[in-house]
């Protein structure tokens, strides 16, 4: 699906007063990114400044220059590198103009060190190796796309393997910028040591009003802290086109009546974390004397409140932040990262008034198999959405018809909110779904929740592979959602009528 909608450049939407200078922006700053890249024609200018760090089976570490040492790929480019390439493009691509708008990467003169290991042990080894050579590349920033937790359980963040893998960077004083997650159903979030980034919805245009994106994960982590710290644009992040045979991105820009050029559109909190990483690298290259703690504080304190709730993180405002740094105005520190004493006795904490303590205790009881299924069902009515999601995670899927009907009832009666209990029920129903539920699932083809539509699409792929795919979009515009759903609804109408006449 192609679109003729052209989003504004990211630098404008972030609040830059002028486009980043492609000859200076990011110069001298090393940025680590946990993703995969290839040698691509768009990044020739990064020769000598794009490294790939690999941990081998014997835990030895190798480092290669992607542009100078690896063969340049050709169309169609490998799908496995699409996510990492468009992330890199957001930061590094050289300027071009399209329909009177100037597009440029935020820090095309930075040095980039790519680490694509998902295994926490290898990731930690790679981080230790990079930190030993921190001065060679002046590594200041780590952009981490591996989501902390990522499921419906909740536990102290220090127990999360991805947090443990990133601790060498934290202990070395680097700024770890964390993608906070793309589903309200996610229960645990990153620790306060990480600069957690969520997303706002501006529809791709600077002039639009902003609101927190419903897919952007938010809430209290397993240490009792609210996350994320800051918000950046979540949708329609334009980059040079990445031409691969089966894209995982959505609605690339194409308008053959005006230009032969296409753009890829990135999104999600991997996109927002990339943007904030670019902002930080840009400011550090312009004002090298600012400390990483002061930079983080400035971005948070000088961001623009959305005003949705008192706990909503601010949206980034680059121009305002740079203005204060330039003038040398004092920047107040962020609150202390001191953790509450959340860990206690599982037996007593399950009855605690503290919802996070109850959630941690319930997680441990489930993992230890010290709770019955009947007791778990009682916890889906807990007053805390965090505890409800842990209980749903523990149940995993309905085990009989009665439980399945009960689960459909909970799903139908769950109200939409930013904490994702309704989405948690949708995923539970997807586990163990059956082919006879088509009519039920088809009611949610145009649901406003992208998680729920994802469940519908997965259901159709499994049980009705001849049905058209329900293309993923994080766009919250109902007209866009209905347009994407139209082929699926047409198939359903034909399928249903055919069944009646056979």
Automatic annotation (TrEMBL):
Domain Peptidase S8/S53: 160-301
Gene3D superfamilies noted in UniProt: Peptidase S8/S53 domain (3.40.50.200)
Signal peptide: none
GO molecular function: serine-type endopeptidase activity
Entry superkingdom: Bacteria
GO biological process: proteolysis
Name of the protein this chain belongs to: S8 family serine peptidase
Source species of the chain: Lederbergia citrea
């Amino acid at each position: 699906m192609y679109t003729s909608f052209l989003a504004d450049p990211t630098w404008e939407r972030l609040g830059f007063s002028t486009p980043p200078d492609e000859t200076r922006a990011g110069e001298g700053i090393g940025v680590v990114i946990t993703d995969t890249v290839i040698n691509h024609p768009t990044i020739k200018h990064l020769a000598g400044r794009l490294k790939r760090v690999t941990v081998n089976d014997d835990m030895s570490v190798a480092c290669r220059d992607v542009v100078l040492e690896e063969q340049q790929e050709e169309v169609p480019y490998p799908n496995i590198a699409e996510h990492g390439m468009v992330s890199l493009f957001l930061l590094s691509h050289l300027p071009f103009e399209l329909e009177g708008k100037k597009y440029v990467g935020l820090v095309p003169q930075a040095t980039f060190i790519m680490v694509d290991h998902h295994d926490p042990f290898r990731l930690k080894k790679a981080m230790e190796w990079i930190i030993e050579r921190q001065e060679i590349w002046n590594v200041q920033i780590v952009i981490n796309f591996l989501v902390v937790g990522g499921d419906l359980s909740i536990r102290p963040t220090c127990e999360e393997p991805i947090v443990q893998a990133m601790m060498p960077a934290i202990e070395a004083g680097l700024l770890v910028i964390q993608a906070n997650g793309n589903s309200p159903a996610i229960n645990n979030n990153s620790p306060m040591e990480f600069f957690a980034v969520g997303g706002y919805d501006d529809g791709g245009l600077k002039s639009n009003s902003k609101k927190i994106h419903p897919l952007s994960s938010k809430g209290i982590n397993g240490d009792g802290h609210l996350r994320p710290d800051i918000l950046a644009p979540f949708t329609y992040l334009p980059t040079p086109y990445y031409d691969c045979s089966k894209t995982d991105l959505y609605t690339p820009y194409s308008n053959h009546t005006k230009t032969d050029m296409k753009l890829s559109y990135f999104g999600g909190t991997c996109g927002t974390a990339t943007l904030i990483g670019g902002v930080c690298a840009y400011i550090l290259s312009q004002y090298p004397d600012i400390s990483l703690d002061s930079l983080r504080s400035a971005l948070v304190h000088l961001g623009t409140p959305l005003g949705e709730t008192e706990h909503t993180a601010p949206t980034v405002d680059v121009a305002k932040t740079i203005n204060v740094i330039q003038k040398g105005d004092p920047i107040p520190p962020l609150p202390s990262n001191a953790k509450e004493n959340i860990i206690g006795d599982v037996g007593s904490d399950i009855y605690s008034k503290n919802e996070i303590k109850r959630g941690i205790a319930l997680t441990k009881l489930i993992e230890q198999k010290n709770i019955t299924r009947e007791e778990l069902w009682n916890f889906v009515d807990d007053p805390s959405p965090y505890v409800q999601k842990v209980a749903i995670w523990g149940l995993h899927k309905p085990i009989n018809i009665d439980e399945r009907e009960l689960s459909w009832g909970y799903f139908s009666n769950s109200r939409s909110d930013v904490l994702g209990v309704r989405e948690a029920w949708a995923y539970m129903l997807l586990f163990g779904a059956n082919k006879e539920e088509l009519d039920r699932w088809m009611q949610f083809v145009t649901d406003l929740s992208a998680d729920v539509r994802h469940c519908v699409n997965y259901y159709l792929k499994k049980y009705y592979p001849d049905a058209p795919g329900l293309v993923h979009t994080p766009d919250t515009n109902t007209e866009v959602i209905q347009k994407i759903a139209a082929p699926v609804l047409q198939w359903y109408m034909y399928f249903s009528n055919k069944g009646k006449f056979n």
